[in-house]
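Second attempt. The first submission of carbonic anhydrase had a stray character pasted in from the spreadsheet, which I only caught after the job came back as garbage. Lesson logged: always re-copy from the clean sequence file. Corrected sequence (191 aa) follows.
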Amino acid sequence: MNLLHDVLTYNEKFVSDKMYEEFTTDKFPDKRVVILTCMDTRLVELVTKAMNFRNGDVKIVRNAGAIVNHPFGSIMRSLLVAVYQLQADEVLIVGHHDCGMSTLSSEAILGAMKKRGVKEDTIDTLRHAGVEVDQWLEGFSSVEESVKHSVGMVKYHPLMVKDIPVHGLVIDPETGKLDLIVNGYETEAAL
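This time the job returned cleanly.
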């Protein structure tokens, strides 16, 4: 047995027993909120439960570190789609304590890549082509500063609605306690 087989076997039962019915909703978030948070496994359900959201209340976008590091990357595009097409009126950027991105070094991840078969020549080719691989793979030293940075990237994006509140929070992955970093209703003073 492998993981894919287990997933597909379970899915047959999920569908035949109509377990999906409890998750029925539409594509628009009931609370009109989009959340950008980390892909950390501890946060899969914790983020929404700690905020009293249920299935259908919010749109969720996840990546490593809850980071918006490129103004025209897929994360920013997803947030813009949530606002302009899916009726989100507020944005929550939620980082977390004990984030793996806070200890990530480009040297370590490049070393792991090489151990798994990525050739040094490939990495060098990317560098010579202008890709800043080392910077792209580097983590952050402060989750609070990282959240502030992402809030600023979203809030001041040239295509974002100017008066949309963009909030920044940090969650404790053990308890679910939220620390307010940026109050989107008072953004100018916070950034």
